[in-house]
Amino acid sequence: MAKKPKKNQQQSGGTPATVSLTAAGVEYTVHSYDHDPSHPSYGEEAAEAMGVSPARVFKTLVADVDGNLTVAVVPVAGQLDLKALASAVGGKRATMADPALAERTTGYVRGGISPLGQRKKLPTVLDASAATHPTICVSAGRRGLEVELSPEDLTHLTQAVVAPIGRA
Question: pTM for this one?
Answer without folding.
Answer: 0.89
